[in-house]
Specification:
four-stranded mixed sheet, 21 helices, mainly alpha, binds protoporphyrin IX containing FE, metal-binding
Length: about 425
């Protein structure tokens, strides 16, 4: 009984000390005057939970609607949505540093026989979302990174649950990234690691491919894949790039490209299929263009309606649902209404918030409308150019500045080629349009 009382007392004291710590750091904080949720003033725990329950996108959109361009998301973290700040925060000079938490022929040539084997070819319903994941995620990136597919297309299934695992790994990054020091106690805990999933299978595949390549350099010397590029870098900068670095680059490549392109492509397909008039215009443009099979990028990127569908898809369904964090440098960050955020504050813009900004994208920013990228009937040329530039400048789909996405061009090639190929060759529709 005595021990239980002692433990309760100790717990009470620890709790009191913790609360005091939060209160003192709140009172000292120069951010306390900023608008935002009450709990965000004291700790990052509410944001951690908000991400864990997948509510962060809606929450952050609502907070900006309620409070405007500046919202405090944590004791040291501020979300901004003023498009004018984009070029200041995400510079190519990298003054606002990112805190880091944690050429092969396209396989569409072989898409046809594989598609012919799907349920769809036998008149049954086939889930195109699964096929996008098989094709776009690990198979395509395996091919591009080390000229070897993982084999999802052939087996028409998520081999060893790797795609599902990759999604859970991303969720771990998103949640634990809100309080990065937790990673030491969770995922990187030496005794009993706690993570939603790990990336061991694709990472093992990268290591295997690396071993095979270095043991057979002559056989693979003409491959125009990322691995040969990384090995070149190793030759040129031996002090910077080791064998482990090369393997690390390949794992980052797979991780960075695995879910991202598939998410955007599924969203683009869904919104095109959901809007019959958009689908009809796209199919009409593709059929008139008489593209080869598979569609080549040079022809596909010239098609204005296809391009507008992809642009608006990237805007409407960004891959990243949280602020792209950067640290305010020693100069501080002066906001338009006079407040200056002190050095060390973590700031960022959430692509989901900026892509819904009505001042930039118009009153219909909440809808998927490829036509917004074209000149309107009564719009004069100059006004259109200003509007177009404003939309382009606010584009955060691939990030911005010196740490923008390294796979952007590759992803755009995939998006154009696959969308053009599928919509020009196959009749696809939603099983349940509602
Ligand atoms: C539609 C597809 C994609 C989207 C929307 C996308 C988006 C992004 C975003 C928003 C960032 C973070 C930028 C920042 O923090 O400011 C990023 C970083 C990155 N992406 Fe992508 N990505 C896509 C595809 C790919 C592909 C296919 C690859 C690899 C081949 C890739 C490799 C990377 C890498 C390596 C980084 C880290 C860059 C750095 O920190 O310096 N991405 N991407």
């Amino acid at each position: 009984m005595g021990l239980a009382k002692l433990l309760v007392k100790l717990f009470g004291v620890a709790l009191a000390v913790l609360i005091m710590r939060y209160v003192v750091s709140y009172l000292r904080s120069s951010l306390k005057g900023l608008p935002g949720p009450f709990l965000a003033k004291f700790s990052d725990v509410w944001r951690f939970w908000n991400h864990y329950t997948w509510k962060h996108i809606e929450t952050q959109k609502k907070l900006h609607e309620q409070y405007g361009d500046v919202v405090q998301l944590g004791p040291k973290t501020v979300s901004l949505s003023d498009p004018n700040l984009l070029k200041t925060i995400y510079t190519t000079r990298g003054t606002f540093i990112k805190i880091c938490a944690l050429g092969s022929p396209f396989i569409a040539q072989e898409l046809d026989p594989l598609m012919n084997d799907t349920d769809a070819s036998k008149g049954k319903t086939c889930d195109i979302a699964d096929w996008i994941s098989f094709l776009i995620t690990l198979d395509f990136l395996g091919d591009m990174t080390f000229s070897k597919r993982f084999g999802f297309m052939e087996q028409a299934q998520d081999i060893n649950g790797q795609i599902n695992t990759a999604e859970r790994v991303m969720h771990y990054f998103s949640v634990v990234g809100q309080i990065p020091m937790l990673d030491k106690w969770l995922g990187k805990n030496l005794w009993c690691p706690i993570k939603f999933a790990d990336f061991a299978i694709p990472a093992g595949f990268c290591i295997q491919r690396f071993m095979k390549r270095v043991q057979n350099l002559e056989q693979f010397k003409d491959k125009k894949d990322f691995m040969n590029g990384f090995l070149e870098a190793k030759k040129e900068f031996p002090d910077l790039v080791s064998d482990n670095t090369v393997i690390g680059y390949m794992i980052i490549n797979i991780l960075g490209g695995v879910d991202t392109t598939a998410i955007v492509m599924k969203a683009i397909f869904y919104w095109i299929l959901k809007n019959p008039s958009i689908k009809a215009k796209l199919v009409d443009e593709l059929r008139t263009a008489r593209l080869p099979f598979p569609a080549n990028y040079t022809s596909a990127e010239q098609l204005p309606y296809l391009d507008a569908c992809i642009k608006d898809g990237l805007r409407f369904h960004p891959v990243v649902g949280h602020i792209l964090e950067r640290v305010v440098p020693s100069t501080g960050l002066r906001l338009s209404y006079g407040t200056t955020l002190p050095p060390g504050t973590i700031v960022g813009i959430n692509p989901w918030v900026l892509s819904r900004n009505k001042n930039v994208y118009g009153e219909d920013a909440e809808d998927f409308i490829p036509e917004r990228w074209f000149r309107k009937e009564n719009e004069d040329k100059e006004a259109y150019e200003v509007r177009f530039k404003m939309m382009k400048d606010a584009d955060m789909a691939f990030g911005n500045g010196n740490r923008a996405c390294l796979g952007r061009l590759l992803a755009l090639v995939e998006l154009h080629k696959v969308t053009a190929t599928i919509f020009s060759k196959y009749k696809i529709e939603l099983e349940d349009p509602e």
